[in-house]
Amino acid sequence: MRSVIVAVCMSIAAGPAFAAEPFPAKPIRMIVPFPPGGATDVVTRVVAQKMNDQYKRQVAVVDNRAGAGGVLGSEQAAKAAPDGYTLVMGTTGTHAINASLYAKPSYDPVRDFAAITPAALLPNMIVAHPSVPAKNIRELIALAKARPGELSYASSGNFLYLSGALFTSMAKISMLHVPFKGGAQAMPSVMAGEVATSFATIVSSLPLVKEGRLRGLAVTSAKRFPTAPEYPTVAESGLPGYVAVAWYGLFAPAGTPREIVQRINADVVAIVQAKDVQDLFLAQGAEAYALTPEAFTKLVQEDVVKWAKVVKASGAKAD
User: Of 88, 215, 217, 285, which has the fewest CB atoms closer than 10 Å, so is most exposed?
Assistant: First the structure.
């Protein structure tokens, strides 16, 4: 009888250890709310592959769910079970700008998600056609003030357009916005002199600047970009306080257990702090960047407020 009681007690004590499976016990679905090949997709696939390498099995599966400027994929993540097995690589666009760009947003970027960590920052560059008589941001602002509404700037996508809108608002100037579907269409128009300037990604503009086909005026980040330190920031070259940087970061559905959020945070932070990943991101015009869940949540909250003001001032609305 005593042996039976001992056996039962041992099974009860051991039960929770067998019931609680270590995380991750199955593949994590990482939703990319944009098509394959873009910056969000590249960052996500690097993180996913490194997680698979770390665990020596497939624990991360990338799932592209493009549509409506990132809304479709973000919605799916928000509605998923809060168990850590569905994540989304959100961006400044999907988790800050869309909150005010859409009249009736279908998800709240703060309330409906648990922020885990950013993985990368993507600053941009302001470039000009060589014929534009402005060698820096201070001269560009002076030129725009002398010719209100005449100087044009190209952009592709909401973030680059709003980066330009923030610039003109802070500088108190008027410039003509010329929208393009992508950088592949915008860059040739600037090189041809059809559009005077452009807000463009570093990866698409820097090679053209180094070839002398465009003039690099400044980068839009808070500090100079590591692979192009000769180009000043907008803030230090004529417009103090200006920063327009897109971040890419992982989110889980709201209600995901804190211990799971912390576990994924630790894994991803270790990945993006690795030298090979930092070098890979730099080659793509991005910087590796990580935060605690609390700091990332604060960043999202601040950017929701920041970009709402720009959206309102610009009159921009999603189609």
Answer: 215
